[in-house]
């Protein structure tokens, strides 16, 4: 064990550990930010498979800390475990970067990989190595940082855990901004593609830097040797205690103070005492996954909520998935404020704000964040279009002809001028939609003979009493990710292609509608392929209106008197009106909850663990995150709520109940100092060894003298 040098009251070694953590978190979150799009756009998996693989990877990252803790505490020690698994981690990042090189198998240079299974296999190997590496070092790095402090440096150690958490979020914030910017660059040897190799390569380089920085500080670290297979001893001791207690369950045997005391016949008191410390903390961990169940929905439910909102905040235009950076930004701001201002103020007021009280407050704040999310959702729901239920159909009439048309529905009729549509979709019960008829002045009534598909929107295109077409819209919800749906209707007699912002609408036939394609916000340029009917002097390049968030439009391409094309735009789904800025209060609340819950939990787990089981307890803490994600899948899957706000309220209520239970459990928890307890055992061992020495010395009698 080497002695750590000091700087500003802190061991110099922790600065290497903090820089290492910043680089490692940059590497992890930068890579993770790209995964879904990499699966969808490069490998070509659908949304469901991409999401399943993504969540499986994240779950593995939070399950492997148990393995890392076992290796550290039982075999290699924390330092060697971090170095060894960081090498595995770096290799994994390099492998996934290589897997994204299009030219690796693009032998015919057409821009499409010729052997996709090779890319899939490499990416899965890379992700497996990353999961082993990042998960394996997770419980070791924070515990290794805590090891650098001496007795009497509790205040500095608590501050270290705050700085450590700050480094995590600073790395996360920068990487989630930088790596998507790298991805949109074009690169390649034979064909230019989205630059995934660069976007994955930078995180790989940062992981290599993290490893180098950590190794450079090697001579300054306090390194503790592993103390044998601790976990095996713990499991055997607990098993023996339970077995022995069951054997002596009759009343004739006197009760013992603690159920683990039934292991005293076989195991020494030091080990039993250490296991008592761990089990007491593990018992407190039982309610904690509920916090993570809410916290981790920032990347799922809250992002989906943002897709139904407007991202124009002042001069900024925010994408729905960029709202997650609010959490990282607020963490960077809030950790120093809470640590340097809020906690000292509370202490001056004479309030004993213990670790478990902080964690209780954190759970309450997260619960309130979901109440705010539910309120925001109610406001969003007021602005959302009403889509048809399973037994209903919705119909909109669009007149693309040159005559006024009247359309008769059961119980109502609508008259439309040329190039106009009904103000909104009309909803009909399928059983009551008995007939639809079209008429124009002086012409006979024509019935619409079409079997409307239940649960869908339809557009009835009319351009003469005996000329109509029913088009199924295919949009039963707001466009995902805040994008905008655009389709074209061709009123020419010829077919044509349309290219809009790199996407092609192929062969839009006469008096028919294309499928919707989706585009981010902004003004989009598009080009019509000329037809035989189009005079050569006509322009074929046009621009859309300024697209906002979550809208859908139909562009009717119509012939003018000079034979050239002109555009008429019709709104199908209005853009989002509730501003994303309304999400900031819920992000603020959950971030405050995270600061007082997560930072405190890391420090509490370290401070209450015996010296040889600190990584095991850190792994137990990280395991609560994995269980929290499983809770989300269970509740969301079993609930099937028709209203999203109701699901938010359910999660808020569940966490509030858990918060009360945790507060009661915390009330009966007694804080301990493992170092003092272990020091007492050391003193007892010294006394026993001295007694043994004296007892082996043979007394000398006067006669012998």
TrEMBL record:
<dbReference type="Pfam" id="PF00854">
    <property type="entry name" value="PTR2"/>
</dbReference>
<keyword id="KW-0571">Peptide transport</keyword>
<comment type="function">
    <text>Electrogenic proton-coupled amino-acid transporter that transports oligopeptides of 2 to 4 amino acids with a preference for dipeptides. Transports neutral and monovalently charged peptides with a proton to peptide stoichiometry of 1:1 or 2:1. Primarily responsible for the absorption of dietary di- and tripeptides from the small intestinal lumen. Mediates transepithelial transport of muramyl and N-formylated bacterial dipeptides contributing to recognition of pathogenic bacteria by the mucosal immune system.</text>
</comment>
<dbReference type="InterPro" id="IPR000109">
    <property type="entry name" value="POT_fam"/>
</dbReference>
<keyword id="KW-0812">Transmembrane</keyword>
<keyword id="KW-1003">Cell membrane</keyword>
<keyword id="KW-1133">Transmembrane helix</keyword>
<dbReference type="InterPro" id="IPR018456">
    <property type="entry name" value="PTR2_symporter_CS"/>
</dbReference>
<dbReference type="GO" id="GO:0016324">
    <property type="term" value="C:apical plasma membrane"/>
</dbReference>
<keyword id="KW-0813">Transport</keyword>
<comment type="similarity">
    <text>Belongs to the major facilitator superfamily. Proton-dependent oligopeptide transporter (POT/PTR) (TC 2.A.17) family.</text>
</comment>
<feature type="transmembrane region" description="Helical">
    <location>
        <begin position="121"/>
        <end position="141"/>
    </location>
</feature>
<dbReference type="InterPro" id="IPR004768">
    <property type="entry name" value="Oligopep_transport"/>
</dbReference>
<feature type="transmembrane region" description="Helical">
    <location>
        <begin position="326"/>
        <end position="347"/>
    </location>
</feature>
<feature type="transmembrane region" description="Helical">
    <location>
        <begin position="587"/>
        <end position="607"/>
    </location>
</feature>
<dbReference type="GO" id="GO:0015031">
    <property type="term" value="P:protein transport"/>
</dbReference>
<dbReference type="GO" id="GO:0015293">
    <property type="term" value="F:symporter activity"/>
</dbReference>
<feature type="transmembrane region" description="Helical">
    <location>
        <begin position="277"/>
        <end position="295"/>
    </location>
</feature>
<feature type="transmembrane region" description="Helical">
    <location>
        <begin position="12"/>
        <end position="31"/>
    </location>
</feature>
<keyword id="KW-0769">Symport</keyword>
<keyword id="KW-0653">Protein transport</keyword>
<protein>
    <recommendedName>
        <fullName>Solute carrier family 15 member 1</fullName>
    </recommendedName>
</protein>
<feature type="transmembrane region" description="Helical">
    <location>
        <begin position="359"/>
        <end position="378"/>
    </location>
</feature>
<feature type="transmembrane region" description="Helical">
    <location>
        <begin position="82"/>
        <end position="101"/>
    </location>
</feature>
<feature type="transmembrane region" description="Helical">
    <location>
        <begin position="648"/>
        <end position="669"/>
    </location>
</feature>
<dbReference type="InterPro" id="IPR036259">
    <property type="entry name" value="MFS_trans_sf"/>
</dbReference>
<keyword id="KW-0325">Glycoprotein</keyword>
<feature type="transmembrane region" description="Helical">
    <location>
        <begin position="202"/>
        <end position="221"/>
    </location>
</feature>
<dbReference type="GO" id="GO:0035673">
    <property type="term" value="F:oligopeptide transmembrane transporter activity"/>
</dbReference>
<feature type="transmembrane region" description="Helical">
    <location>
        <begin position="619"/>
        <end position="642"/>
    </location>
</feature>
<feature type="transmembrane region" description="Helical">
    <location>
        <begin position="51"/>
        <end position="70"/>
    </location>
</feature>
<keyword id="KW-0472">Membrane</keyword>
<comment type="subunit">
    <text>Interacts (via extracellular domain region) with trypsin.</text>
</comment>
<feature type="transmembrane region" description="Helical">
    <location>
        <begin position="162"/>
        <end position="182"/>
    </location>
</feature>
